[in-house]
Write a structure and sequence with these properties.
Layout: E1 16-20, H1 26-29, H2 31-45, E2 48-51, H3 62-74, E3 78-83, H4 100-104, E4 109-111, H5 116-124, E5 129-131, H6 135-139, H7 147-159, E6 162-165, E7 170-171, E8 191-192, E9 197-199, E10 204-213, H8 214-222, E11 237-241, H9 249-261, H10 264-267, E12 270-274, H11 287-308, E13 313-318, E14 329-331, E15 334-338, E16 343-347
Parallel strand pairs: 1-2, 1-3, 3-4, 4-5, 10-11, 11-12, 12-13
Antiparallel strand pairs: 5-14, 6-16, 7-8, 9-13, 10-15, 15-16
Length: about 350
C-alpha cells in the first residue's frame, strides 16, 4: 500500500515563521520565557517569528486555534510553523482544520508532545513534518540553545541535508520553573546519559518515519484519525516517546501492545524509542531509581517489539521528545537506523 508524502520546501533567511499555540498557550502564561525564545529563534535560524491571535491567548477555543493554523498555512509569506509547546486537548482542534491548505502550500511544521495530533493530520493528508521543537521549552529557557537542537532545528527549517543523530552526553527531564526569573539563564538539573541500547538483528534499515508521543498516538488511533491499513508503514521507522505524565512501564506496554495488535509493530522495520522523562517538579526519584524506571520502559518496549516483529531493529535512549537537549527528527522523512554500526542518521531534505 502506497501513501505519498510531500517534503515541504525550506525557508530562506529573512522569511517569516509562524509561532502558534495549537494546545496550551504557554507564551501567555510565561511571556518572559516566550520573548527570549523568539529572539533566539531569529538568531538561530535567520527567520522572522510571527505571532497569531491565540499564540498568547490562554484558554482560546479549539475553533480559534484552528483558525490560526489555517491562517498560517494560507499565508504564502509564512514559510514554516513552530508550535510553542504541547498540551492535552489538541485533539479537539483537528476537526476544525482545512486540509486543503497544507496540501496547496506545504511548509515545515515543528512540534512535539500533543502536537502529535497535527503531525498525524499532516501525514494523513500527505505532508511531511518534523517531530520536535518547542519555543517555550527548547529556545526560551536556560543559558542558550543546545547545539544538537540548534543544528537539527536549522536543518528542518532552512538547511536540509543529512545529520548523524548523536547523544549529547547529558539530559534533563524538567527545567527551572518558568515563574522563576532564573529560568531565563539556568538549565534544569542535568545528568549523564546512558549508552543507547540496540536490540533486534544487526542490520541497517532506511525508512520513512511515523509516530510521536505514545499517549497521543493512542488518542489519534481511538479517534479514527489513522485511516489506513498498517501496511502503509511497511519498512518504515517507528518513532515512540513518552510524556511528562510519567506513565509506569506496564501502561507503556499496554499501549505498545495495542500497536502490535493494530499491525503497526509488524509493519515497520525499525523502532526508535526516546529517552523517557522519569521525574518532574514534584517527583524526583534517586539516581538509581531513575535509571531503573528508564530501563523498565525500555525492556517492556523491546520485549513487545520482538514479540510482534523479531526482524525489527530497535534503538532505545535516543534524545528526542520530552527531553533536553532534544533532536528534531523527520516525521514522514527518511531515517537510517544502522544496527551494524549502531548509528542513526536523519535526512532533513
Amino acid at each position: 500500500m502506497e501513501h505519498e508524502v510531500v517534503q515541504p520546501p525550506k525557508a530562506r533567511a529573512g522569511d517569516r515563521i509562524a509561532v502558534l499555540s495549537p494546545s496550551f498557550a504557554a507564551p501567555g502564561a510565561y511571556p518572559a520565557v516566550h520573548e527570549q525564545g523568539m529572539r533566539r529563534l531569529a538568531e538561530v535560524t535567520g527567520l522572522v517569528p510571527v505571532e497569531y491571535p491565540t499564540t498568547r491567548q490562554v484558554g482560546a477555543s479549539a475553533q480559534a486555534r484552528a483558525a490560526d493554523i489555517d491562517a498560517a498555512f494560507a499565508d504564502p509569506s509564512i514559510r514554516g510553523i513552530l508550535a510553542s509547546i504541547g498540551g492535552e486537548d489538541q485533539i479537539t482542534v483537528i476537526p476544525h482544520l482545512d486540509s486543503r491548505l497544507p496540501c496547496a502550500d506545504p511548509k515545515p511544521f515543528l512540534g512535539t508532545s500533543d502536537n502529535t495530533n497535527l503531525h498525524q493530520w499532516l501525514w494523513a493528508n500527505g505532508v511531511a513534518s518534523f517531530y520536535g521543537g518547542s519555543s517555550q521549552v527548547h529556545l526560551g529557557p536556560g543559558p542558550g540553545v543546545d547545539d544538537v537542537h540548534a543544528r537539527s532545528l536549522r536543518a528542518a527549517l532552512t538547511t536540509g541535508g543529512s545529520l548523524e543523530v548523536t547523544d549529547p552526553g547529558e539530559s534533563e527531564d524538567v527545567g527551572v520553573d518558568w515563574d522563576d526569573p532564573r529560568a531565563l539563564e539556568s538549565s534544569g538539573e542535568r545528568e549523564a546519559t546512558e549508552p543507547w541500547a540496540w536490540d533486534g538483528p544487526a542490520r541497517s534499515v532506511t525508512g520513512r518515519t511515523w509516530g510521536g508521543c505514545l499517549e497521543v498516538l493512542q488518542w489519534v488511533l481511538t479517534a479514527g484519525r489513522f485511516p489506513f491499513d498498517a501496511a502503509v508503514l511497511e519498512g518504515g521507522v517507528l518513532l515512540l516517546e513518552t510524556s511528562e505524565e510519567l506513565l509506569p512501564a506496564r501502561e507503556v506496554g499496554w499501549i505498545v501492545r495495542s500497536l502490535g495488535e493494530r499491525g503497526i509493530l509488524g509493519a515497520v522495520a525499525a523502532v526508535l524509542l526516546a529517552r523517557p522523562p522519569v521525574s518532574d517538579f514534584s517527583r524526583r526519584p534517586a539516581p538509581e531509581e531513575r535509571t531503573r524506571l528508564r530501563a523498565e520502559q525500555r525492556d517492556v518496549v523491546v520485549e513487545l517489539v520482538a514479540r510482534y516483529n523479531p526482524e525489527a531493529v530497535v534503538c532505545t535512549g535516543v534524545p528526542f521528545g520530552h527531553t533536553r537537549p532534544q533532536w528534531v527528527l523527520p516525521h514522514g522523512g527518511s531515517v537510517t537506523v544502522d544496527g551494524v554500526q549502531q548509528r542513526v542518521h536523519a535526512d532533513y531534505s
